[in-house]
Design brief:
heterodimer; A: mainly alpha; 61% helix; 1% strand; B: alpha+beta; Immunoglobulin-like; three-stranded mixed sheet; 22% strand
């Protein structure tokens, strides 16, 4: 019975009006593009903020023309104040983690391709889908508003530790309405993500085409599905945490604030709360969030790699089971963010072991990708370059996890640039490499035109080398004890290392500038790119069986039937070395 | 272009490893009794991480060099052993690494956190507030006076909110802005947060511990080398966070006693 109702719920009429077509669209493909656009906007702002921070770190007294227009108080005469540096840092982290790393690989590409890859006409709940985007968009607007209110953006960092975040204006600039807006924005984001992940789960379970068994789903569909399961549990904890924070701030409750605090010479009217409670709730969400950001890219990279290698992975099942175990383990490790927080030192051991254990499924995946390259015939495209670049970044960012998983080493590396380098590389850069690979790969399906490969490869080289130049030195600086979240280094100890900070800053400007090539390529190819055929990459999954771009109901009212596993490459098919999933020709011998 | 990728990746991998292999970036010299265990653990982990990093990057480069853009119709093959071998390698090699690091690492952690301070350790209280550290010595009576948050008055230098008029124990407390300690004597540092979360990090001492409002936390350590070292706050605490510092001054026992006497006379 459940299947019937879900099947009926997702069917909707073709869009007639402008609003229904482009704004409040029910079509998962339009919603996906909206998510992608939002991610692109957020990443541009987030990157501009990182430029300002990097600039300030090495030239703290330099004037940045025009910056005083953004904030008179934060950048008087165009010189960033230490507190405005913290505002930039908070907004950079929040935009990147939530509105970029959660939106682009998961909500955008998942929305577009999950339904098509399983042979569905749309998501299970198109109205929920539309709502999830618009609630997320509202969250984005609320967050950005913080730049334009007199109070300015909050200064508590993307982790917003209480009691700094919970006591209001006494805590400093940006901590009155700036912080309120942050809390409201993230609560809205949680609601959007909860609706979205419910929809992903229902769609995957209920709307698969005939013959599309779970194990016949492409690996990226699996990745989006597993991510949705993680997100459902993670955001369900962050949402109440945000509500409690807002109550502490606006309703005078004391969930996170104990008694006896004197802030800005004022005894705070709170008692009975626990700052560690916020940390537990936040990181219970925060660590799975790392996997929400990277699992979709793992799936996307597997999908693209197989297509480029012209042969299946050594085992798709092993990759899928590894992703599941990573998802499961991600709920048992949040305390590794809190080794020096004052939590019971015995619990540090209990959090350390599962954290180290995650290395095993992560290594299995890496070895399966590497082992699969052996004996392949890898086609080099912009997409496949970013896919193998992802593996390199995942390894580089992953090995530093060895250090941070151990409480004893965390004593010296906690809150240093080592941590910053680690998570930027593994959760930021690696995940974004997945997004780039996905964009170069699926652009033709989405727009009907090919992206320019020469520009794409140039973009890859600059980005690949550039991100190593930025984030490797972060690790080095952390190893000498360079602490993070300092707006400038006023002590002699850091003086010998400032040259490295300059190197990072210059690399960040060059690498950031290289992203203009990507944006130009997106816009240019959208209008002037070579027309794309239905299946330019000779791929096997269902999205390549429909026109580019697909019609509003994906399969033109037909119901695809699936006959094969998703990756029949390196075989003698009717069309070439591959057999499409919906091709009725028999399975090749031995598969 | 696959070969170009391989060459660039090898250069990146070797260039990344070079500063580590040549010990360009190392923590300042350890001055604690427990720190060597942490340093050993760090270098063991570095060796294992370096092995994994270089191994994976070089294999990736090699395979891309060898298997990218082969002639059309080149024979496809699978690596001997297949997925089973990959899973086995991950479980055996990485599993062993993980187990070794996990078990050995606990010892270094236990040195710091599972051993109680000695009964004769010198007790000092540290208070962190936006954006300064203050330290309190118990004075001749060996007891700290109680803290009264409502009596905190920085203008009158009552940083801890003491009440000497009514509280006898607080009258001889010595409050300072630097943490002076005698060398080779265990210190039991009691940590109190006045307003928001802060942290106590001394690189040379291999100690980092948060101050959490409402929680009575403490750390204990023994410094083994006379000198002046920086204490920095590592928990984002507000606009002056970057400037929240103090000094740890490790002195000989004689110098420490003289210093304490002088500070007592200044109170």
């Amino acid at each position: 019975m459940q299947e019937v109702s879900a099947q009926q719920a997702h069917v909707h009429a073709p869009p007639e009006t402008f609003l229904r077509k482009y704004v409040f669209s029910l079509d998962h493909k339009v919603i996906a593009k909206q998510y992608y656009g939002l991610g692109l906007l957020a990443v541009c702002i987030g990157m501009a903020l990182s430029w300002l921070m990097r600039f300030h770190l090495v030239w703290p007294n330099a004037h940045i023309p025009g910056l005083e227009l953004l904030s008179k108080a934060g950048a008087p005469g165009g010189v960033i104040t230490p507190e405005y540096y913290l505002s930039l840092l908070t907004m950079h982290g929040t935009l990147m983690v939530f509105f970029v790393l959660t939106n682009a690989p998961f909500a955008a590409f998942g929305n577009y391709f999950l339904p098509i890859q399983i042979g569905a006409e749309d998501m299970a709940f198109p109205r929920f889908n539309m709502m999830s985007f618009w609630v997320t968009f509202a969250g984005f607007i609320v967050l950005i508003l913080a730049f334009f209110i007199p109070d300015g953006p909050p200064i508590a960092g993307w982790t917003s530790y209480a009691p700094l975040s919970a006591v209001g204006k006494d805590a400093g600039p940006g901590m009155a309405w700036g912080m309120n807006l942050w809390g409201i924005s993230i609560a809205l984001f949680c609601i959007g993500s909860l609706l979205g992940s419910l929809n992903f789960i229902a769609t995957t379970l209920d709307l698969r085409a005939k013959g599309m068994t779970l194990m016949r789903m492409p690996i990226c569909t699996w990745a989006w599905f597993i991510t949705a399961c993680i997100a459902l549990l993670a955001f369900a904890v962050l949402l109440p945490a945000c509500i409690l924070l807002i109550l502490d701030r606006l309703a005078g409750t004391s969930f996170f604030v104990p008694s006896g605090l004197v802030i800005s010479d004022r005894l705070q009217p709170h008692s009975g709360g626990s700052p560690l409670l916020w940390q537990h709730l936040f990181w219970f969400f925060g660590h799975p969030e790392v996997y929400i950001a990277i699992l979709p890219s793992m799936g996307i990279v597997s999908h693209i790699l197989i297509n480029s290698m012209r042969k299946p992975l050594l085992s798709a099942r092993v990759i899928i089971y590894s992703m599941m175990s990573i998802g499961f383990l991600s709920y048992m490790v949040w305390g590794h963010h809190m080794f020096v927080s004052g939590m019971n030192p015995f619990s540090s051991l209990m959090f350390s072991f599962p954290t180290l254990t995650i290395t095993i499924p992560a290594t299995i995946m890496t070895l399966v990708w590497l082992g699969s390259l052996y004996g392949s015939n890898l086609r080099i495209t912009s997409a496949s370059l970013f896919a193998i670049g992802f593996i390199s970044m995942f390894v580089s960012g992953g090995v530093s996890g060895f250090f941070l998983a151990q409480p004893s080493i965390d004593i010296v590396l906690h809150a240093t640039y080592f941590v910053v380098g680690h998570f930027h590389m593994v959760m930021g850069v690696a995940s974004i490499f997945g997004v780039f690979a996905a964009t170069y790969f699926w652009f033709s399906k989405i727009t009907g035109r090919m992206m320019n490969e020469t520009l794409g490869k140039l973009h890859f080289w600059l980005t690949f080398i550039g991100t190593y130049c930025i984030f490797m030195p972060f690790h080095y600086l952390g190893l000498v004890g360079n602490v993070r979240r300092y707006s400038s280094f006023v002590d002699d100890f850091m003086a010998p290392w400032l040259g490295w900070h300059k190197f990072i800053t210059i690399s960040a400007f060059v690498t950031g500038g290289a992203q203009l090539i990507f944006i130009f390529n997106l816009i240019y190819s959208r209008f002037k790119g070579a027309p794309a055929s239905e299946n330019p990459w000779e791929a096997t999954s269902l999205e390549w069986s429909v026109p580019s771009p697909p019609p509003w109901n994906n399969f033109g009212g037909k119901h695809p039937v699936v006959y094969h596993d998703p990756y029949q490459y390196g075989v003698n098919g009717a069309k070439g070395d591959y057999i499409m999933q919906d091709s009725p020709e028999p399975d090749p011998v031995g598969s | 272009m696959g070969k170009l990728f391989a060459v660039i990746l090898v250069i990146i991998a070797l260039a990344s490893a070079y500063p580590i292999a040549t010990h360009v970036f190392v923590l300042p010299e350890d001055i604690s009794t427990h720190g060597h265990a942490i340093d050993d653990q760090l270098s063991d982990t570095m060796a294992e991480a370096g092995f994994s990093f270089l191994g994976a990057q070089l294999v990736l480069a090699f395979f891309v060099w060898k298997f990218a853009e082969r002639k059309a119709g080149a024979k496809l093959s699978n690596i001997p052993g297949g997925a089973k071998l990959m899973v086995a390698i991950a479980f055996i090699i990485v599993g062993a690494e993980v187990f070794a690091l996990g078990v050995l690492g606990q010892k270094a952690w236990a040195n710091v956190y599972f051993t109680p301070p000695r009964a004769d350790a010198l007790q000092i209280q540290a208070q962190a507030g936006q954006f300064a550290f203050y330290f309190r010595y118990p004075g001749a009576d060996g007891k700290f006076g109680a803290i009264h948050p409502d009596k905190i008055d920085e203008g009158n230098q009552n940083y801890f909110g003491l009440d000497p008029a009514n509280d006898v124990e607080s009258r001889d407390d010595i409050v300072t802005g630097e943490l002076a300690i005698p060398v080779d004597r265990e210190i039991h540092l009691l940590m109190h947060a006045k307003d928001v979360g802060h942290s106590f990090y001394v690189r040379e001492l291999r100690i980092q511990q948060d101050f959490v409002p409402g929680l009575d936390l403490s750390v204990h350590f023994t410094a083994t080398k006379i000198g002046k070292y920086e204490i920095v706050c590592t928990q984002l605490c507000g606009l002056g966070h970057y400037n929240m510092k103090a000094y740890l001054n490790v002195m000989s026992q004689d110098d420490f006693e003289k210093w304490l006497k002088q500070k007592a006379s200044e109170q």
